[in-house]
């Protein structure tokens, strides 16, 4: 206010001075002239003052808002709704799988009644059927580039070893896992079952592509291992898990159930894709939407099983949960170490640096795909075995944690590889410039 009065005084003083000089030079001191002149001066000063106050207010807003008047939301000190939602939406979109699985477990703990009702109406079987239909829809025709096809065909020894590692070699880790004593014992049994599963349906291929590996080879290993697992799993579970626990596994019944719940929906989804061009176009352009739907169907299973086993889970000590999570991490590190060591030995035995196993694209695909295990297949197996190896909810919980661990650990590994490759590329460009 003081600044405004001072500015107003500075503006008025020159004008009044000019009028006074004019009145001295003229010899007529007419009062009417003074009244009119003073009135005009007053109006002029008032208009200048109003303009100054408006400009002063605008400038203060510009200073506070860094160059422009503040929007209403910022003036009130509250962030606008889109500004708050966008980071949350981005985080949820990038981490939908862990959020959905953790949320389903938490929901089962908080309110088990809806999950028990869903179990009564066999929702878990419907969800497994839906997952593999979506997987069949997402499998494109083999219309890959000729370079990709030739690269996958050339690397057939790598793919063959990958299948042997997934279905025959790494399942033997279940013998070691079953020697661990932990209460409840279903936690250990669940991880032993998890080690017998085929590779993941999509994350292995996605991470291979992200790391610059042979994605065609990764896709071939994924599809082939999923199909062969229907034949091999009943016998490997019976021999490795059933004999270890002294339980009888209905091999023939499990085999038929796996055909119905895994193979038929996979073929059905693929047939739908090939029969309807519009559906294939929709699947190719909405892969993220289909992935979200697949994750939601997958999350139904832990939600139902946790709801059923809530009373038992509440009796378990938190230390047991922590131990089984650590066991899942050790299991994945063991798989990575085994496959990495195998790649080195195979390189040495088949030509060293000129070996097909020594190519970075092939070794990346083999290491990532052969070191992961599929949670949806395990869910289907546990659902078919019912309570042969214990409470289904207690069997699935450690495998959910192990599934999340392997995706997080492999994502960190791929990110590390990419950063190293980028730094090497920068060094090479600097050397060439020099």
From TrEMBL:
Protein localization: Membrane; Plastid, Chloroplast envelope
Topology of the protein relative to the lipid bilayer: Multi-pass membrane protein
Main location as per UniProt: membrane
Transmembrane segments: 155-178, 190-211, 217-242, 289-306, 318-338
Coiled coil: none
Keyword Repeat: no
Superkingdom of origin organism: Eukaryota
Function (record text): May function as sodium-coupled metabolite transporter across the chloroplast envelope.
Identification of the protein by name: Probable sodium/metabolite cotransporter BASS4, chloroplastic
Taxonomic source organism: Deinandra increscens subsp. villosa
